[in-house]
Structure formats: structure tokens, C-alpha cells
Design a protein that fits this description.
elongated, Four Helix Bundle (Hemerythrin (Met), subunit A), 186 residues, mainly alpha
Length: 186
């Protein structure tokens, strides 16, 4: 087997992964323009510039490691694909619940209501839970224990910073509720 080619199941997963990423990027871009036109404000200290390279790069590195190592056992591949699918479902439930407010960037529109429907009823950041599931699922399905572990840890660290930026941006909204203990949900 050529070490730079993916087995068919991994090729399909790679196409699904990057295809979904392109769909999400288009939706995010459209929503970002709309939010800015409504007066949306983006914090200057967001880690988006790093995330926009690290996220697809993480998947690319996992598929490359999978190509070199060869496909994992079928049970691991299927379990990873299942985790990825469940994570994608959660992520898209969050995306659809946020509607036009979902973006790759942190953009807060003054006066916009906070979302408390869908998975936001139970999880503070369901989109980010989905993203971590996507990374873990692809790591398992691709048979990429090294790059997968590094991707989860590195991207997890970026998301911790991202969540802090997002929470601060929502807390500092001019129109925020007076109760500081109220749970802020993007």
C-alpha cells in the first residue's frame, strides 16, 4: 500500500470531514457578515486566527498519520466514526439552535437575545463539545493516536482561551441582564 493514500473508509471520512468544514465555513461567513451589519462587535483578543489554521490542520495531520500507519481495526474505525457522527449531530443541533448567530468568530450583537434552546438548555458550549468529539472521533477512526492526542490537547487549550473570550464578551454586553449569576449562553 502506498503510505500516502488512505484506505477507502478513511477517504470517505476525510471527504465528509472536509466537506462539512466547507459547508460550515460558508454558513459562518454569511452569518458573520450579517452580525457585523447589525452592529456586532468582535473582541480583539480572540484566538480565531490560530483556530482557523489549527482546526483543519489537525484533521489533515490525523489523516496523514492514518495513511502512514494504515487503517485501524474495523471496531476502532467504526467506533471513531460513531463518535464523529454523534459529535457532528450535536454540533449541528447547536448551529441550528443559534441560527444566524452561529459563526466561527466571537461576534456579539448588542440587544440580541441569548440562546437558551436546543442543546443550550443543558450544555453551556455544545458546539465546542461537538468539536472535541469530532477530533476524538477522527483520531480513532483514522488510527492516529499521536497526532490525534496532540490535536485534542492543543485544540482543547485553544478552546479554553476561546471560551474565556466568549464569556467575557457576553458578560460585557451593554444590554446584559443585571443578575451576574445568570448563566450566559452564546
Amino acid at each position: 500500500m502506498n503510505p500516502l493514500t488512505l484506505p477507502i473508509p478513511l477517504s470517505v471520512l476525510a471527504i465528509l470531514t472536509f466537506g462539512a468544514l466547507l459547508v460550515e465555513a460558508r454558513r459562518a461567513s454569511r452569518n458573520e457578515r450579517a452580525q457585523r451589519s447589525r452592529g456586532g462587535v468582535e473582541p480583539a483578543d480572540d484566538v480565531y486566527k490560530i483556530m482557523r489554521v489549527a482546526y483543519p490542520g489537525a484533521f489533515l495531520s490525523m489523516f496523514a498519520e492514518g495513511a502512514v500507519r494504515g487503517a485501524p481495526p474495523a471496531t476502532v474505525l467504526l467506533a471513531g466514526a460513531g463518535v464523529f457522527a454523534a459529535a457532528k449531530i450535536l454540533k449541528w443541533w447547536a448551529i441550528l439552535s443559534l441560527g444566524p448567530f452561529w459563526t466561527f468568530r466571537v461576534i456579539v450583537v448588542p440587544g440580541a437575545p441569548l440562546t437558551v434552546k436546543g442543546p443550550y438548555r443543558w450544555l453551556r458550549h455544545p458546539n465546542y463539545v461537538g468539536v472535541m468529539g469530532e477530533l476524538a472521533g477522527v483520531a480513532a477512526a483514522a488510527g492516529a493516536p499521536v497526532s490525534g492526542s496532540l490535536a485534542v490537547v492543543a485544540f482543547g487549550a485553544l478552546m479554553i482561551k476561546r471560551i474565556a473570550v466568549e464569556e467575557r464578551a457576553l458578560r460585557n454586553r451593554v444590554d446584559r441582564p443585571a443578575d451576574p449569576k445568570r448563566r450566559l449562553t452564546p
